[in-house]
Design goal:
Rad50/SbcC_AAA; Helix Hairpins; alpha/beta; 14 strands; Chromosome segregation protein SMC; ATP hydrolysis activity; coiled coil; 789 residues; five-stranded parallel sheet
């Protein structure tokens, strides 16, 4: 893999940035905080959609970017001579992810997860493998030799991915221990062979008891069935007795009901007969009182007519009174309208005057503002001339203080003979400025102030006149509104008067006689009680026909009910029911039922005994079945334990075999590079199976700690590169052609930096790209290509 181009938008500290990567030894140079490490974070993010540590959403968006702006990371790279481009985009507040993957500018995959899967498939490296293989920091390099042996071993095994084998081995040991504990726990609860035999013998005994009890159940069942048959026969006979009894009781009840109903109708017949006789007497009385009703109706009609005349009379008097008031309002409103028209006749003239004054006010205001600006300009000019005089006076005083030997304040040359001329020239400037320029400006300012005062007076006078005119206009407009209201009121009064006049003409023909009205009321009062009595008689007689019909109906009903009663009584006497035999049969039924219940209780007890014994048999059998199942589980766990032990042995052999290959391979690669870098001084670096490091010096093996700091740094560098190469070979990723080192110079002096850079130049033929990230600005000349941030 060779990196070619990286483009960033709103990613971390970069708002918009693009970088093209060259081949060879490339320096990424910049001060702390300039975003050097962010470049390779973006590369990792483009390929795998994650930062070095997870939980990226709260940190990847640039602090100055809004939630509407997208975060975009694009990486172009070459792999096996094919060009690829991966683009990741994050939008919205929630940073919803989307990604695209191109091969030779052709889109081949979309979707964040899908693109990551394609990258892993292409490079044959996960995110962690990519980091461990291609990236290294100064801290990681120095820890190779400085850490304790056990810590160094863990770190290298983690870089090589071997800690997963250690984890699996640890899990196997824990699983084996757990299985041993579980097998021992089963041994404590399993039944012995003696217990199993005892339980089986109990089952045989219980089954024999069950057979004996079942025979007794069969005998009792037959006895109960015979009792049930006898009970059914007796029930049939009792049903016949009960039906006959109910039939006789029903007829007796119906006869009693009919007898009661006939007596009730006879009483009602007597009452209705009395009512008919009474109503016929009232009918004769009503015939003699017909004249009173006619006289009362005539008087009542007369009173209604007088009441209508009285209403017309009252309405006429009200209209006359209202007309008097309306005439007064009419006259008053007419006078008000004339007066208001007189008061508002100057409205148009005043409106025109107001507009004209408003125009003058604007003109005076503009002139006044212009005069104020001119006044400020002259005052500013005078202030400038005063400052010039003050500066010249300062120069004069300074020259006098310094004397004839001083330098000219303008040209800086010695004054000498020109001393008096310079002073005189400066004093002339002061005099000319004060007497001519300032005086002239003051005269202009005084004249301008007088003009301003005249304009101000004209403005104030016009403004006052405008205010007075506006006040008059407002008053007249208020009067005009009053005039409109008064005219509306006048028209309403006029219309109301005409309406009243028309109504008076209509009702003037009606004449009300109060005496005739009073006499009619008195007459009505005298006849009222007699009239109400007549009405009562008429109401009462309305019932006569109805009562007569009811009397006829009741008489017919009594005849019908009497005939029905006689027929029902005859049927009652013909029903044959023997109560003594009925009671004897009930007693016989109770005895049979009691006998059946006693037999059922015995049968139920036998069944309970059988169920209890069956439950004991089931419990013992369940215990035996559970014991069999537990034995099967124990055997399964023993088989699992045997398998785990076999896997542990195989894994141990695999670790030994893998270590025997990895350590020599790291040693071979590191030795070749170290010999080249040290120019043959040191021929071999040995890496033990426990990842301890040794350097051979003149054929003798020494621990790495024996050597100087510079030699150790170079050894750490080649060892780290060897580990990366070995990891690449193990994962089958030999196509990755770049390495990146972050701040590998640390705090080393210039000589060691040069040694490390020389080492990188020595091994660059093995990698098409080597990136070095550093904040040391003075080493940038040592690189073939530099990206300065």
């Amino acid at each position: 893999m060779i990196l070619t181009k990286l483009t960033l938008e709103n990613f971390k500290r970069y708002t918009s940035y693009s970088i093209e990567f060259k081949e060879g030894l490339v320096g990424i140079i910049g001060k702390n905080g300039s975003g050097k490490s962010t470049i390779f974070e973006a590369i990792l993010f483009a390929l795998y959609g994650e930062l070095k540590n997870k939980g990226y959403k709260e940190v990847i968006r640039n602090a100055n970017a809004s939630t509407k702006e997208a975060v975009i990371v694009e990486l172009e790279f070459e792999f096996d001579s094919v060009e690829y481009k991966v683009s990741r985009e994050f939008r919205g507040k929630a940073l919803s992810a989307n990604a695209k993957f191109y091969k030779n500018n052709e889109l081949i995959t979309t979707g964040a997860k899908e693109v990551t899967i394609s990258i892993v498939k292409l490079t044959r490296m996960s995110k962690d493998a990519f980091l461990h293989t291609l990236f290294a920091s100064q801290k990681e390099l120095t820890s190779l030799s400085n850490q304790k042996p056990e810590d160094r071993k863990k770190m290298i095994r983690k870089l090589l991915g071997l800690e997963k084998i250690d984890f699996v081995e640890k899990e196997l040991i824990e699983k084996s221990r757990q299985l041993n504990r579980e097998i021992k726990a089963f041994d404590e609860v399993l039944l012995s062979s003696e217990d199993v035999e005892v339980k089986k013998s109990h089952i045989v005994e219980y089954k024999e008891q069950t057979t004996q009890l079942q025979n007794q159940v069969d005998i009792k069942t037959k006895e109960i069935n015979q009792s049930k048959l006898l009970e059914v026969e007796i029930q049939k006979e009792l049903a016949i007795f009960l039906k006959t009894k109910e039939q006789k009781l029903n007829h007796a009840s119906q006869c009693e009901i009919l007898k009661t109903s006939i007596n009730s109708h006879i009483r009602n017949q007597a009452k209705l007969s009395d009512d008919v006789n009474t109503l016929k007497l009232k009918q004769n009385e009503l015939k003699g009182l017909e004249s009173i009703k006619q006289e009362y109706v005539k008087v009542h009609d007369s009173i209604k007519e007088q009441e209508k005349l009285k209403e017309h009379h009252i309405r006429k008097e009200g209209l006359i009174t209202e007309q008097i008031s309306l005439r007064e309002q009419y006259t008053k409103s007419k006078e008000s309208i004339v007066e208001l028209k007189e008061q508002t006749k100057e409205h148009k003239t005043l409106i025109e005057k107001e507009k004209e004054l408003e125009k003058y006010i604007v003109e005076y205001k503009q002139k006044l503002e212009l005069k104020i600006q001119e006044e400020k300009s002259i005052e500013k000019t005078i202030a400038g001339e005063d400052k010039l005089i003050a500066d010249v006076n300062t120069k004069i005083k300074k020259i006098k203080d310094l004397g004839r030997e001083s330098n000219c304040p303008t040209c800086t040359r010695p004054l000498l003979d020109e001393y008096d001329n310079v002073l005189e020239s400066l004093e002339d400037i002061v005099k000319q400025t004060k007497n001519e320029k300032i005086q002239k400006h003051k005269e202009e300012l005084e004249a301008l102030k007088k003009q301003k005062e005249e304009v101000q007076k004209s403005y104030e006078s016009t403004n006052h006149e405008y205010f007075t005119t506006s006040k008059s206009v407002n008053l007249i407009e208020s009067k005009k509104r009053d005039l409109v209201k008064e005219e509306e009121h006048f028209e309403k009064v006029k219309a109301h008067g005409l309406k009243n006049k028309s109504e008076l003409e209509k009702i003037s023909t009606f004449i009300y006689d109060e005496t005739a009205h009073t006499n009619a009321l008195e007459k009505q009062k005298e006849l009222k009680s007699k009239y109400e009595y007549v009405l009562g008689l008429e109401t009462m007689l309305l019932r006569l026909d109805k009562v007569q019909d009811e009397l006829n109906s009741v008489t017919t009903t009594i005849d019908d009910l009497s005939k029905k009663y006689e027929a029902l009584e005859l049927e009652y006497k013909q029903i044959n029911y023997d109560e003594v035999k009925h009671k004897e049969k009930e007693k016989n039924f109770d005895e049979v039922k009691k006998q059946k219940e006693e037999q059922s209780n015995i049968l139920n007890n036998l069944k309970v005994q059988i169920a209890t014994i069956n439950g004991q048999i089931q419990t013992i059998q369940q215990s035996l079945d559970d014991n069999t199942k537990q034995l099967s589980k124990v055997q399964t766990k023993k088989d699992d334990l045997t398998d785990y032990e076999k896997i542990k042995v195989s894994l141990g052999e695999f670790k030994t075999k893998l270590n025997s290959k990895i350590a020599p391979r790291i040693s071979t690669i590191a030795s070749e590079m170290y010999a080249i870098i040290t120019k043959g001084k040191y021929q071999h670096i040995e890496v033990s199976n426990d990842f301890d490091f040794f350097i051979y010096d003149e054929g003798k093996k020494y621990p790495i700690e024996r050597f100087s700091g510079g030699e150790v740094d170079l050894a750490n560098l080649v060892l780290r590169i060897a580990i990366s190469k070995t990891l690449g070979e193990l994962s089958g990723t030999s196509s990755v052609g770049f390495l990146a080192f972050d701040e590998v110079f640390g705090s080393q002096d210039e000589a060691r930096r040069l040694e490390i850079l020389e080492a990188f130049h020595t091994i660059k033929e093995q990698y098409r790209q080597i990136f070095l990230i550093s904040h040391e600005m003075e080493i940038k000349e040592m690189f073939e290509f530099v990206v300065e941030l």
